[in-house]
Specification:
Blueprint: H1 2-8, H2 10-34, H3 46-58, E1 65-71, H4 79-94, E2 100-103, E3 120-126, H5 131-150, E4 155-160, H6 162-196, H7 199-223, H8 233-261, H9 266-293, H10 301-332, H11 349-359, H12 361-376, H13 398-409, E5 418-422, H14 436-447, E6 452-457, E7 460-462, E8 480-481, E9 484-491, H15 493-498, H16 500-509, E10 517-519, H17 521-555, H18 559-584, H19 589-592, H20 602-634, H21 640-664, H22 672-704, H23 713-722, H24 745-752
Antiparallel strand pairs: 1-3, 1-4, 2-3, 5-9, 5-10, 6-7, 6-9, 8-9
Helix pairs in contact: 1-9, 1-10, 2-7, 2-10, 5-6, 6-7, 6-8, 6-21, 7-8, 7-10, 8-9, 8-10, 8-21, 9-10, 9-17, 9-20, 11-21, 11-22, 12-18, 12-22, 17-18, 17-20, 18-20, 18-22, 20-21, 20-22, 20-24, 21-22
Length: about 750
Amino acid sequence: MLGRLVIRRPWRVLVTSTLVLLASFAVAATTVSSLSLNRYEALGSESAAARSALDRLFDTGSPNVALLVSSSTGTVDDDAVVALGGELTEAVTAFPGVGDAWSYWSPDAPDTLAGADRRQALVLAWVPGDADHVRGEVLPALQAEVVERFDSDDVEVALGGGDEIFRVVAGQARADFLRAELIVIPLVLVLLWLVYRRLTPALATLAVGLFAAAGSLALLRLVLPFTDISTFAANISLVMGIGLGVDYSLFMIYRYREEVAAGHDTTTAVGRTVAGAGRTVLFSGLTVAAALAVLFVFPFPFLTSFAWAGIAVVLCAVLGATVALPAILRLAGRRMLRPTGPGRPEDGFWFRVSTTVMRRPFVTGGAGLLALLVLGAPTLGLTFGSPDDRVLNDGDQPVRTMYDTIRSDFAAEDADALLVVAPDTTVGPGSTAVPDSDLHDYAASLSQLPGVARVDSAAGAFTAGDRTGPAGPFGADRFESGAATRLSVLPTSERLAQDPVGLVREVRGTDAPFEVVVGGYPAELADYRDGIVDRLPLVALLILVVTFVVLFVMTGSVVAPLTAMVLNLLSLSVMFGVVVWGFQDGALAGLLGFTPTGVVEPSILLLMFCIAYGLSMDYEVFLLARIQEEYARTGDVVSSVPAGIARSAPLVTAAALILAASFAVYASSEVAFMQQLGIGMALAVAVDATLIRGVLVPAALRLTGRASWWSPGPLRALHDRFGLREHPVTPAAGPPPTSPSADTRPTLERTTR
């Protein structure tokens, strides 16, 4: 029905699609500016409870803003700098939106707020509110009205803090997005021209990609009133929109060319292309959307943003490929064909490769499997961790320079203290609930933990080896509030850089004489990380189940989907391997200019897994559809494999090349995890389209033979009722294709009925 509609009214469909595209561009521009600056925070976690208690009981919180004051001529103890530091602290304290502030120049401030050489010192502040308020409103105003006012020839003032770091990261991601647009679009057009050898199909394919990218951003605008969408979703919409638009358009145009080569006129060829290849595109889109939809499992807006973006991209790519593109095919006619005419698939490279593989499946398949295992071996050393300023590459970013100074010159990082809160606990002299001695012993115990520089509490300030508890640096009133008390556990810079998550666990594991909750910036990052890692098994299970169902509906087999899932997981191990080897261990640091931290941020790796797995299944759908089509036509379980691969592998290779190039553009990003995403995804797509589809798939299908298309009786009946049925490419006239032999007909009927 859709094909007939497009054939009858191609101009109407094309004009409507063009107007939708132009409207999408206009709406997309407003979407990008409205996206959110999400934090790495886990709602409902212990750190969230601590943050709420600090706000409610103490009117303070973990410092999320820091100002580094550097003296140009003397030290921070010089009279002029002391006076300026006091004025700066007062200005920050009084600034609209700031809830609390203190500094090295505050009364009884600890020495850790100054550098070892006394040339730098810190002002810390807590700004309540969500990330958009803090990063979008308070910080820009603080930079313009306070930092720039106090910055002078005598002292240099730099703005930092956790929210400032990721404000800069988000801004850099936006700049990378714009640069990627300028590079990806002409690059894709050139590659498409090399694939098609004609400008018309290249422009049509790029138009579908732009339709998917712009349309997805426009759809996200409809979601924004109901949920937060991360700024990084725009990057995903661009690269996946272009990639899926190219994938689906290549598949449709290749099928159109085959239909014309089989003797059908161009009008009939369009209808048969939509009726046949269009359904495969739909199933492929369902697979990719399902792989990304599992991100809704996570209660983190940063991750659910990519689920919304992925679903929107798939919807727009499928619509563009099955509605707008057929209208172009109908109007362009023979201008969409190869200038030299179609070649025989049997003469192609992939036919020869797959035939060679199937002659010796154990040898070739074993060699391919060994290569995957070797490339994926570094995955065994994967270590999850939390991001910090080092996600910004070395360069001209002041916030990165600021924290390099803090790491090298400061013994501890007060802004990253762990905050231990005991709500509804009266502590102190004369208390009947918790004696002051219990608080004294608990604070002293925390100070003995490896990597703890100092513990501040109402009972005093404790350092390792000092259990006497001298007077607290800010006075007892900062650590007591009515029926509550709190402690500040200050980590050393070395421990914070090496193992912040381990420190959080040790603090939480220390026996306390009263109920406590542990918060602070390191605890928030640890809870976010744990929230992701704990749900990884569920996400993996959901992805496997959903993709199995989609492939079963397409093939009617239980063996082929299982084989595909195993091979896809093996290909993804290569992606994980290069991330660990290149980014966690730093092998690519010199080439790309980032700073390795020895850990991988889990949410980005999870996003990569979902995208790569969905795209792998995308290619698997194309491949299996053509192999099964050949099997249904000939009944030959062996020859159908190279024949199907010969017809699908060229377009899969071309699509993978273009998609890999689009992802690889992000290797030039100034944000480390965008580089990780670009390099890892480019490699995953390249390996999947070559080693997996060209070697391991034909080897596996040769070894499983006719069992590849087997399923139990009840499932066969279910597939007969609801499964995908794609007609083969048949000549327009002449005798029907050779019927399968009698001994294979029952099996074929089960798979093609």
